[in-house]
Amino acid sequence: MRFAPAAAALSLALALTASVSWGAQRDPSPRAAVLIAQGQASLDAGDTQAAIDAYEAALTVDPAYTPVLIRLAEAARQEQLQGKAIRYYRNRCAAGAARKRPASPPRSPLGRKSAC
Q: Which residues of the chain register pLDDT less than 50?
């Protein structure tokens, strides 16, 4: 009985820590980070095609790092490639939705969805 408040506080702290780390954005791989920086420098210099090339290379190096899709979309918009920009935005939205989608329910050996 005397440990109940401490156990509840510890459980709450662990639950909050777990949920914060679950939603945290990860960093890109080191090579992708260099390419993203090169793309940003090219974009700042006004060379949008070089920026698009660098961002696409970063996406190839680290396809799981989807925030680069937003940078690609912004560079494509500056290059007046509206269709390409929309595709990048949609891909980013789809990647975010896929990450938030719950796991499918387990199936029984007979191929039916189980109740649990």
A: 16, 18-23, 113-116
Largest CA distance in the chain: 67
Cβ atoms of residues 68 and 44 within 8 Å: no
Q: Compute the radius of gyration of the chain from its Cα atoms.
A: 21
Integer Cα distance of 60 and 44 in angstroms: 22
What φ, ψ does residue 113 adopt, rounded to 5°? Answer: -70, 135
What is the value of pTM for the model shown?
0.61
Q: What are the residue boundaries of the structural domains of the chain, listed by start?
A: 30-98
Do residues 32 and 40 touch, judged by C-beta distance below 8 A?
no
Residue 18 phi/psi, 5-degree rounding, is -65, -40
Check residue 39 and give its pLDDT: 93
User: Helix/strand/coil (H, E, C) string of 19-41?
Assistant: HHHHHCCCCCCHHHHHHHHHHHH
Name the fold adopted by 30-98: 1.25.40
